[in-house]
Amino acid sequence: MEPGRLLVGNAGILVTRVLYEKANQDKKFLVVDGGMNDLIRPSLYNAYHTIVPVVQRANGQPEITLDVVGPICESGDFLAKDRSLPCCWPGDLLAVLSAGAYGFAMASNYNARPRVPEVMVNGDQFAVVRARETYEDLIRGEIIPTWF
Predict the structure, then answer these.
(1) Does some domain include residue 116?
(2) CA-based, 20 to 30 A from 65: which of 44, 90, 125, 141?
(3) Active site residue 87
């Protein structure tokens, strides 16, 4: 039994912004600003996370099958493969569901990417409970030797 996962796994989401869509001969890709460093579970062990638009558009929106990928340009940088989603446009927000138990705990600074902020929501109230990291945060402990 995993009480942490049971209690908070479905309570957390990762919100990511659509950057653009691209395609090759075989596949379509939806490139978003969230990557494998933010939510490693799909890449690490093929975990399935439902992905939905934050703002639902009118009914009748066509769906398209594609891979939802991050901006890191690695074969493992994906949030979903062969997923059917409503058409999205640059700037749209997507919610990657069930990211609460291990999303941030497994996040990293891979490829010099600062970790995302954590926001707690209670009804119509919200608060940033962990600030977004900055590049200065990433290099804070580094020192250039005086003999360099």
Answers:
(1) no
(2) 44
(3) no
